[in-house]
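Before the break, one more example. Copy the sequence into your notebook; we will annotate it together after we see the structure.
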Amino acid sequence: MTQDDNNQNTPEVQEDMNELLKIRREKLFQLQSEGKDPFLNVKYDQDIHSMDIHNNFEAHEGKEVRIAGRMMTKRVMGKASFCDILDRDGRIQSYVRKDEIGEEAYAEFKKYDIGDILGIRGEVFKTQKGEISVKAHEVVLLSKSLQILPEKFHGLKDQEMRYRQRYVDLIVNPEVRETFIKRTNIIRSIRRFLDGREFMEVETPVLQTIAGGASARPFITHHNALDMDMYMRIALELPLKRLIAGGFERVYEIGRVFRNEGLSTRHNPEFTMLELYQAYTDYNGMMELTESMIKAVAKEVLGTLKVPYGDHEIDFSLPFERLTMVDAIKKYANIDFDKVETLEEARALAKEHHIEFEPRHGKGDIVSFFFEEYAEANLIQPTFIIDHPIEISHLTKKKPDKPDYTERFELFVVGREIANAYSELNDPIDQRKRFEHQEAMREQGDDEAVLIDEDFLTAMEYGMPPMGGLGIGIDRLVMLLTNASSIRDIILFPTMRPVEQ
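Here is what the structure looks like once it is written out:
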C-alpha cells in the first residue's frame, strides 16, 4: 500500500468521505421529492458508441447522436461545461452549454456527480483544440451514483479490493476492460476454429455421481430429492467420450470445472476448460490441432504470432518443439531414465537428488517428479512434452513399442502446462485394470485418485472408436495471450475468502 493509500484511510479522510456520501444521498432524495427519480428511467435510445464516433468522425460530423454512459470527469466553466462519458468502448467528451440545453437543465447538470449515468443527445463536432466531442442538446440523468469512485491519480490500487470489487476495477482501469474483452475474443476465436473443423459443441452435466476424468479432489454436494451425494465435475472428459461411443465423431465443450484445491497465481477452485475429442485420430493429430488452433487464435485476437510474456517474447510462428519426458529430463538433469530398469534404482536416484516420494509411487511417478523438478521451468518457448509414464496416465493408450509409457503430450509455454492430450484408451479391459490401480492408490492415501466408473466402462464395451482427446485450460491460455501474471487478473470474479464484518 502506498503512502497516498494510507493517507486516504485516515480518520479525517474517512469523515470527509462519509460527508460526501451523505451529500449524494441528499441529492437523490431532492430529485425524488421533485418527481425526478432517476431510478424510474427504464429506457434510453442510445444509438451509437464512442469508438464508432472516434473511428468514423467524418461520417458522423454534424449529425445528431444519442450516447449513454458514466460521467468520469466534469469541468464547469460558467455557462458552459465539458464532461467525459465512459461507455462500453471507451470515452468521449461532451460539451454542455446552458444556452443549448436550457437554464433549469444546466443547473441540474452542474449538480450531477462523477459516476452518474447520463444519456446525452447532441451533435458530433470537433472543438477548437481538435477533440472529437458531442455538443449536448439534451442531458438526462439515467442513474445516480451513491458511491465515490477511487481518486483520479491513485485509482484502485489495493489488489485484493480490485478482485473483490471488479465492477469498480472495470470502471477505473481501462486496461482491465481490455483484458476481459480479449478473453471473450479468445474464446470466440477457439469456437470459430473448432466449428470450422466440423466439431460439434455440446453441454454435459456439472453435477455428477462419480468425479472422473482427472486426478483432483472434488467438491461434494447433496441432492435432497434423491437423498444422495453428488460431485461438482473436475473434468469434462468421460461424458464427452460417451458421446464418441454414441456416434458423434467430433465434440467439444467449453465449461466450468471445479477442484477442491489451493489458491495460487495459477489456480482457482473453479476455472474454464476446453475439452475436445475426435474419432479416428491420435495424439499426433491432437498436436497438429493444438498448434494450429493456438496460432490461429493468437493471430486473430492479437494480430501477431510474437507475444510478450513477462521478460520473454513467445514466438508462435516457429514449429513447436517436441521432446519426450525422458529426453527432457536427460536434457536438463543429465539423467537417462531409459537406463533405469527397476523401481529400486528410480528410488535411489530420487533420494540422491532429494526428490520426495511415497511408498505407493512407482517408477513412472518418480520420472514425473524429476521432470517437474528439473525440466518444466526451462520450457519457455512452446514445447510438446510427449510419452508420459503409464502410472500418471490412466486414460491413455500405451505406446506399442514401449508399454511403460503412453501416447500422451502436454504443451508447455513459459514453464507452464497449457494443454494436455492423449491417444485415448478405448480398451475396456485395460481401462478396468487402470481404474482398479487408481482405486488401490486411493486406499493407500491418494485422495486424488479416481473412482471406478462402471457406466463409462459399459460405454467402452459397446465399442469406442480410436480417438484423440485434448484439454486446454482457457484461463492459462488467456494469461499467456494477455501477459497476465495471476489467474485472478483474467477471471472476472475469482474465489476469495469473505471479508470479516
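The chain has two domains: 3-152, 174-320+382-489. The mean pLDDT is 93. Try to locate both features in your own notes.
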